[in-house]
Write a structure and sequence with these properties.
Largest sheet: 18 strands, antiparallel, barrel
Radius of gyration: 24 Å
Helix content: 10-25%
Oligomer: single chain
Number of helices: 2
C-alpha cells in the first residue's frame, strides 16, 4: 500500500514537472521571438541609421462608459507611448499602453490591462522585403472579443501572445510571392477557460491580369494551421484562388474562394466493463468551403466597405475551432477637417459542430456608431454608442447589451 502511494506521488510529481517544462519551453519560444523583434528594432534604430522620420508620442486617454453586460459605469485611464522610425528602407514602430479599468460598483472586476506591440519592415533589395511583428496583451473584460469575433468571454484574465515573420519577393514586374509564419497563444488564469497555441504558415502568389481584364490582379493562397488545445489538436489546410479588381477610380472588389480540409483529435475518457476509466483518442475530419468578398468605395470624404467571409478559427477560451461566417458593413464619413463619424454593422455566425465536442451555434449582431472631433492634431474627443445581441442556440439564451462611452485623447509628440 505504501509502495503504491509512493508511486502515485512520483507519477504526480513527474506529470507536474513535464507540464512545467512544456510551459517553460513555450514561454522560452515566445520570449525568443519577442527578443528577436526588439533586436531587429535596435539594429535599425536611429543610432545606426540616420532616419528620415523619428517620432516619440506619449499619450493619455480617459474613457467613461456605461456597459449593460456589467450593469455598471466603467472608467478607463490609458497612458501610452508610441515610437516610430521610417527611412527609405525601414518602417518600424514600438507602442505600449496600460488600461486601468475601474468599476463604479463591482470593484472586484477592477483590473490593470496591458497592450504592447512592435513591428519592423525592411526592404532588403528592390525586389525583396522582410518584416516581423510581436505583441503581448493582458486583458480581462468580458466583451473584449465581441467586435472581432462575435463571441463573449467571461472576466478571467487572459494573456495573449503573437509573433509573426513574413517576406515578399517581386519575381517580375507582374508577379509577386509572399511567405509568412505566425505563432499565437491564449493563456487563462481560470481552469474553466482553455489555453491554446497555434502555428500557421501561408504562401501567397499574385499575378497581374491586366492583359485579360484591365486593373485586375489574380491571387492564390496556400495555408496550413495547427491549433493545440489542452485536450484536442486541430490541423487545417486551405487553398484559395481569387482576384482583386479596380472597377473604377473609387470602387474596388476583392474575391477569394477555395476549400479547406480539417483534421481533429480529441482526448477523451470512457468507462470499461470492469468500471475503469481509460483514455482514448477520437478523430474527426471535414471538408468545407472558405472564402472572402470585399467591396470598397473610397471617395473624397466618404469610405465604405462591405465584407462577407467564411473561415475556421480558434475560439479563445474554448476547446476546438469555430467555423465563423461574417457579414459586415462599415462606413466612414469626414464632415469637416476636424469632425468625422463612423457607422458599422456586423453579423457573426459561429459554429462548433465537430464530433468530440459540444455542438455550439452562436449568432451575434453588433451595430455601432462613433463621432470624433479633433480640437487640434493631438487633442480629440470621441463619443460612441453600440448595441449587441448574442443568441446562443445550445444554451437557448438571448442577451442584449447597450454600450455608451465618451473618450478624451491627448498626445504630445517629440522629435518631429
Amino acid at each position: 500500500m505504501k509502495l503504491e502511494t509512493r508511486n502515485s506521488k512520483l507519477e504526480t510529481r513527474n506529470s507536474k514537472l513535464k507540464a512545467s517544462m512544456r510551459t517553460f519551453m513555450h514561454r522560452f519560444k515566445i520570449i525568443t521571438l519577442l527578443s528577436l523583434s526588439v533586436i531587429l528594432q535596435v539594429l535599425f534604430s536611429p543610432y545606426n541609421i540616420r532616419g528620415d522620420e523619428f517620432i516619440l508620442i506619449p499619450s493619455m486617454a480617459l474613457k467613461q462608459e456605461y456597459n449593460e453586460y456589467a450593469e455598471d459605469f466603467i472608467t478607463t485611464v490609458s497612458p501610452g507611448v508610441k515610437l516610430t522610425e521610417r527611412t527609405e528602407r525601414l518602417d518600424s514602430g514600438l507602442s505600449g499602453r496600460i488600461d486601468q479599468v475601474i468599476y463604479a460598483e463591482n470593484n472586484e472586476y477592477n483590473a490593470l490591462n496591458h497592450h504592447y506591440t512592435g513591428q519592423i519592415a525592411y526592404r532588403l533589395t528592390e525586389r525583396m522585403r522582410a518584416s516581423s511583428e510581436a505583441s503581448y496583451i493582458k486583458d480581462s473584460r468580458r466583451d473584449r472579443d465581441v467586435e472581432e469575433t462575435g463571441l463573449v468571454l467571461g472576466t478571467a484574465t487572459r494573456e495573449r501572445y503573437h509573433c509573426a515573420f513574413s517576406g515578399s519577393y517581386l519575381v517580375s514586374e507582374i508577379t509577386a510571392m509572399a511567405l509568412s509564419y505566425a505563432y499565437d497563444e491564449d493563456a487563462f488564469d481560470d481552469p474553466e477557460f482553455v489555453t491554446y497555441r497555434s502555428d500557421s504558415v501561408n504562401i501567397g502568389l499574385t499575378h497581374n491580369l491586366s492583359y485579360f481584364v484591365p486593373l485586375m490582379v489574380g491571387r492564390m493562397n496556400l495555408g496550413y494551421a495547427r491549433y493545440d488545445f489542452t485536450s484536442a489538436i486541430t490541423e487545417n489546410y486551405l487553398l484559395t484562388v481569387g482576384a482583386s479588381w479596380e472597377l473604377s477610380e473609387t470602387l474596388s472588389l476583392l474575391v477569394d474562394f477555395g476549400g479547406r480540409y480539417t483534421f481533429s483529435e480529441y482526448n477523451k475518457y470512457a468507462w470499461t466493463s470492469d468500471y475503469q476509466l481509460v483514455p482514448y483518442v477520437e478523430k474527426d475530419e471535414a471538408w468545407a468551403t472558405t472564402g472572402k468578398v470585399d467591396l470598397t468605395f473610397t471617395g473624397e470624404l466618404m469610405k465604405w466597405t462591405f465584407t462577407l467571409s467564411q473561415d475556421i478559427r480558434a475560439a479563445s477560451g474554448r476547446v476546438g475551432t469555430t467555423e465563423r461566417t461574417m457579414l459586415a458593413f462599415n462606413i466612414n464619413q469626414r464632415f469637416t477637417d476636424k469632425f468625422r463619424g463612423n457607422l458599422s454593422a456586423r453579423y457573426y455566425l459561429n459554429l462548433a459542430d465537430q464530433e468530440g465536442v459540444t455542438t455550439d451555434e452562436e449568432h451575434t449582431l453588433r451595430i455601432s456608431s462613433r463621432l470624433r472631433y479633433d480640437f487640434t492634431r493631438d487633442i480629440s474627443l470621441e463619443a460612441s454608442y453600440a448595441f449587441t445581441t448574442v443568441i446562443d442556440r445550445e444554451a437557448d439564451t438571448t442577451t442584449h447589451r447597450n454600450l455608451i462611452f465618451t473618450r478624451f485623447i491627448f498626445r504630445y509628440p517629440f522629435f518631429e
